[in-house]
Design brief:
Layout: H1 2-14, H2 19-36, E1 43-48, H3 52-66, E2 70-75, H4 83-91, E3 95-96, H5 100-106, E4 109-113, H6 125-137, E5 140-143, E6 165-169, H7 174-177, H8 182-185, E7 187-191, E8 203-204, H9 208-214, H10 224-227, E9 229-233, H11 240-252, E10 257-261, H12 265-271, E11 276-278, E12 290-293, H13 302-309, E13 314-316, H14 326-331, E14 336-338, H15 342-349, H16 353-358, H17 360-371, E15 374-377, E16 383-385, E17 391-393, H18 406-419, H19 424-443, H20 452-457, H21 459-467
Parallel strand pairs: 1-2, 1-4, 2-3, 4-5, 5-6, 6-7, 8-17, 9-10, 9-12, 10-11, 12-13, 13-14, 14-15
Antiparallel strand pairs: 15-16, 16-17
Helix pairs in contact: 2-3, 3-4, 5-6, 9-21, 11-12, 11-18, 15-17, 18-19, 19-21
């Protein structure tokens, strides 16, 4: 966040006093008006702290008051409220609340301007009480980010605002994109206030155009080997379905061919006769450009060393992660991509799952550094990172992916992209993006429970969504 603060300071030095705040307030007022639908006659309450976010809220409130809204400001620190914003609100017909619970209870919209990007820790008791009352009474719009969340990490330490929408200025803050803070931000609106930011950010979120540029496409002279052959070591007598799902993801992820090694060959061939099967070991199965190992293998870890010894990219998921050591991964010369969920990441780091879920950004970075690998930390906001460089957050995730077998499909898709030649960070990012789009398609516009096999079936449509 220091990058954003520095850009704001640089821009403020070039603009007349207060101009930057007026830009932010104008964008905030427009967003509030759209949420209200009808501004004239509506009731708006501003929760105003002592910082610039409080000033943004006051100036936006003044704009709404001039359009006929009844605007009341609840001042959490009256003596430290932004004086220019407060004067503008009063001049426009707004007022300072003398009964916060009453005004919040009658509000059509509440604007959270309590704490900005410089806030640390949770809300103080008085602010937390007001935030809870607002959440129970009316839609809440957060100014720049929900008060009480950590802008740099997405962590939440104590009470924080639950917003229906967040209007952020200049750039998306990491805390708006990473859980647990992400789920508190609601719908996001970015307002351009003229910041000049560096080309490389600490956090990236790929969009359709970025993914379309990265997706491998077969050329006229392509054959299955040029397109990439991915080897899949998955499934067991107990979990044959994991093999089927991983192979489904690999076949629909663009691989030229899939070689399956494991005990579930009959189940795989019954569903996908185009699969090349082999009883093993992996180093006898034939030529591959990448390996995927782990989904559903249980305690059958004998093949892991075979796969790690191969001089091709390797994706390790699920049961395969239990047998890894940082030293063995660091010995490899080809890329390694680890794809844990929070529980598996916790085991690799030697801590509790709740600790990983509370600090997802720090956890994925620590894992990548410890193993010298690329790590894809699965979750509603999937994160992908190398040991250094920016972290990528997947914007297409959905809660419908929290279903048995969806991770097996993701492993197959991502393994196929590795086989096609994408670097591990790109393969993980693109695989997660397509996986999320496929799940959204499977769930439908209104949202409905989906199966992992349905997610796999919609991967082709996800490709078309991106490329057309």
């Amino acid at each position: 966040m220091e990058t954003v603060r520095a850009a704001e300071r640089e821009l403020m030095a070039r603009l007349p006093g207060g101009a930057l705040m007026q830009r932010a307030a104008a964008g905030l007022a427009v967003a509030c008006g759209e949420l209200l639908g009808k501004v004239y006659g509506s009731r708006v309450v501003l929760l105003v702290g002592s910082g610039d976010n409080g000033g943004d809220a006051l100036y936006a409130g003044a704009r709404l008051a001039r359009r006929g809204a009844g605007v009341a400001a609840v001042l959490l620190s009256p003596e430290r409220a932004h004086q220019g914003g407060l004067a503008a609100l009063r001049a426009a017909g707004g007022r300072v609340s003398d009964d916060a619970p009453r005004d919040i209870g009658r509000a059509d919209l509440v604007v959270d301007g309590i704490v900005g990007i410089g806030g640390r820790g949770g809300l103080r008791p008085e602010a937390a009480q007001l935030a809870r009352a607002a959440w129970e009474s009316a839609p809440v719009v957060a100014v720049d980010l929900p008060s009480g969340v950590d802008a740099d990490s997405g962590e939440v330490h104590g009470d924080a605002v639950w917003a229906d929408a967040t209007v952020t200025f200049g750039a998306y803050k990491p805390g708006l994109l990473i859980d647990p803070a992400r789920e508190r931000a609601g719908a996001l609106r970015l307002v351009d206030i003229g910041l000049t930011l560096p080309q490389e950010a600490e956090l990236e979120a790929l969009q359709h155009a970025d993914v379309a540029e990265l997706l491998p496409r077969p050329a006229p002279e392509s054959d299955k080997y040029r397109r990439g052959v991915v080897g899949v070591v998955a499934g067991s007598a107990r979990y044959p379905g994991a093999a089927v799902l991983a192979v489904a993801g690999a076949l629909r992820g663009g691989a030229g061919a899939v070689r399956y090694v494991g005990p579930a060959a009959d189940a795989v061939l019954a569903r996908f006769p185009e699969t090349l099967v082999h009883p093993g070991p992996p180093d006898k199965a034939g030529r591959v450009q990448s390996w995927v190992i782990g989904p559903g293998i249980g305690d059958e870890a004998d093949a892991l060393e075979d796969v790690l010894a191969a001089d091709v990219p390797v994706l390790v998921d699920a049961d395969g992660l239990r047998f890894l050591t940082p030293e063995r991964v660091r010995e490899r010369t080809a890329e390694t991509l680890l794809t844990p969920h929070a529980g598996e990441a916790a085991a690799l780091l030697g801590r509790g799952r709740e600790e990983v879920e509370a600090a997802r950004l720090a956890s994925v970075r620590e894992l990548a550094a410890r193993y010298g690998a690329t790590v894809l930390l699965k979750g509603s906001t999937t994160l992908v990172t190398e040991a250094d460089g920016p972290v990528r957050v997947n914007p297409t995730g959905t809660g419908w992916l929290a279903t048995a077998g969806s991770g097996d499909v993701l492993s197959g898709v991502t393994g196929s992209l590795l086989a096609a030649g994408l670097p591990a960070r790109d393969a993980g990012s693109v695989g997660a993006y397509l996986h999320g789009l496929a799940a959204r398609r499977a769930a439908g516009p209104d949202g409905a429970p989906v199966l992992a096999s349905e997610v796999a079936a919609h991967l082709g449509a996800a490709w078309r969504d991106v490329t057309h």
